[in-house]
Amino acid sequence: MSQDRIIIYDTTLRDGEQCPGASMNQREKMEVAHQLARLGVDVIEAGFPVISRGDFEAVRAIAREVRGPMISGLARCVPKDIEAAARAIQPAGKRGRIHVFLGTSKIHRQYKFGKAQDEILRLAVQGVRLARKHCPNVQFSPEDGSRTEWDFLVRIVEAAISAGATTINIPDTVGYATPKEYGAMFAHVLANARGARNVVFSAHCHNDLGLAVANSLSGVQNGVRQVEGTINGIGERAGNAALEEVSMALRTRRDVYGPADTGVKVSEIMRTSRLVARMCGFVVQRNKAIVGDNAFAHSAGIHQDGILKKRETYEIMDPQEIGWGVTELPLTKHSGRHALALRLKHLGYRLAERNLEAIFARFKALGDKKKFVYDDDLATLVDAAASDVVEVWSLDYLSVTSGSGVVPTATVRLTRAGSGRASTTHKDAGTGDGPVEAALRTIDRITGRQGKLLDYQLRAVSAGKDAIGEVTIKADFGKGQVLTGKGASTDIIEASARAYLNAVNRSFARAK
Ligand code: MN
After folding, report:
1. How far is the CA of 322 from the centre of ligand 1 (A)?
2. Residue 460, pLDDT score
3. Ligand 1 centre from 389 Cα, in Å?
4. Domains of the chain, earliest start first
């Protein structure tokens, strides 16, 4: 890879997935991984294999199926972590990478490990060596590196390089660094650690002070050739550096950051952002740079006038280049199977024939309810139809009465899928303070599972008064089961019931 190339290391599926409530199942992770490959990231950190069987399986499946990017698995500097990571990435062959990390700052050494510098150094070397036995690509991260004494940082980086590390990532784990400090740290390590010129240095920043992207870019100006981050900046606490921002900053300000380019196909940015938001149930804030709904919305008349005369008067980037506004004509109920299949392909979905059938049926039903079916509507249909959540309970019938002076009442009929026997139908009615509560409480009565609603979000998927409403809920089913559910319909009460049932079904899947 050319010296001018900046490697983009995506950790949406690991650090991004670590934020509370963002948990994705394996199918959702796989969708995201395929889209990351289309986006052209260089490395996908697919997970932390030792954490759970689910994480291990997801990393292994991604290593097996996703072509293009290198697939990385995270591990602490302990044999069982490293061996699990090695097994998980093994199907990727030469494109596999093991990422080992170990806390190096004084606070980590004293309080987390109770170990002196030399002992930490020894553990790091052992970890890197073991990882190298399994894989030629080994990345080492001194965790909390930005708060580690520079002398020790140089020593441990040197030791990791001579033990065989090929990439050295120095993270700002707690989002404490400022751009100047973070850049100076890289300049110092690169100038003083033996062997530094033979490896790739990497930045990994958190956004606790809103500086994640600025810090990453300062790293680039000081010798960093790999930037780590997530799509939409999701991640622990305030999140990670947003990769769409990093890539567009590098591209828009080549005059400052140099000719270094990324392999990112910017026309895939919007699609990736939307997909990640849907898959992890995290809505992108409206005013978010690059991908927020308002990122290119001009409301001041004087701006609008300027844009119409020449776009560059008020716009530093071309929104169309990153995938804004590339909506084609919406489909209608008259559109056939072929037109639908073609559009879905264009949207980047790879669907099995049986899924296409199910989506076509839903598409027709939707076409009867609303005049135009937009790309975003289709995406919602696909997510619902291709979901691999086993539908233990499904919604059969829902009727709600509400209004001023009426006690909101819901009548619900659910079908319970029979395992090996015929499915059964269950009906009940209940009341609530509002129509949504009435419906959800009635569902609880039927399923016998009590979920405590923690979050409820309603979003209009596309434009127009007949838009589909998409509801994302988060519910606590006890015993640490906090689950997300999604549902969509042109009727928002129905969408709410579907979203809740989706979470209920996930809780049944977990219970097994
Ligand atoms: Mn992190």
Report:
1. 26
2. 83
3. 29
4. 7-280 (3.20.20.70), 337-385 (no CATH), 393-511 (3.30.160.270)
